[in-house]
Each structure stands twice: as C-alpha cells, then as structure tokens.
Amino acid sequence: MCRMSLAAEHPLITFREGPTGRRAGLIGGPDVWEVVMWLDGLSAEVNPAAVLAEDSALTVAQIYATVSYRSAYPDEIAARVELHLRETEASEMR
Q: For the chain, does the N or the C end have fewer beta carbons within 10 angstroms?
C-alpha cells in the first residue's frame, strides 16, 4: 500500500522509527499496539472505547482509528503486542 492511500485510509495514524523498527502510532498519541492492549484489557466492559476515552487523554476518534488500523493490519499489531509481552517478561526475570 502506498503512503498516500494509507494516509487517506487511516488519517490519524503515523509511523515512528525505533530500535525495534517502524511502528504505527496515533498522531499526537501512543503507539497503536499500546491502545490495543488497553482496549483488550477492557474487553469485559460494555463499551471499552468509551471507558478508555473517559479514563485517558485519548479521544473516541483516536480509539476508533486504532481499531480500524488493527482490523486492517492484525498481524502487525499482534506481533508488536507479543514483542512487548516477551520483553516485559524477560525484564521481570532479571
């Protein structure tokens, strides 16, 4: 997918470079995988997006942009979440 069509399809999403490579993030906000983890942690809630918007600095539009991006690229986001969980577990074992 070219950069222009990605920006049109996911206008609140940007990309950041880091030690683990390029990752998707919200413009003016956290990485997509972080929001996904928060939402997954609230999955028992009636409306996890509304709860997260109320309990954080994120807007409902940013949360839905995250959900849309994850729907389009589930493997990418799942890999980022898995990487975070592995790194967290490894650091806790030290």
A: C
